[in-house]
Write a structure and sequence with these properties.
Distance between the termini: 66 Å
Largest sheet: none
Helix content: 40-55%
Mean pLDDT: 93
Low-confidence stretches: none
Number of helices: 2
Length: about 70
């Protein structure tokens, strides 16, 4: 290992905008189980499936249909 490194010619990582952000979120058990089951059928991790679904909702600018009774 060198004592010093020259970073003067370094470039910014082009993939940093695509990095995921870790958060804590509270979901109902039934919701998580639904996505786990669906993800197993498709063959992908359930967190990836949930992320893909939420990304699609954001891209389509979908809004929830909430009716307070």
């Amino acid at each position: 290992m060198k004592k010093e490194y020259d970073f003067s010619k370094s470039v910014k990582n082009p993939y940093t905008k695509k990095m995921k952000k870790q958060i804590s979120i509270r979901l109902e058990s039934e919701t998580v189980e639904y996505f786990k089951k669906l993800a197993a059928e498709i063959g992908i991790p359930y967190q990836n499936l949930m992320n893909m679904y939420l990304r699609e909702c954001a891209q389509k600018n979908m809004k929830p249909n909430i009716k307070w009774t």
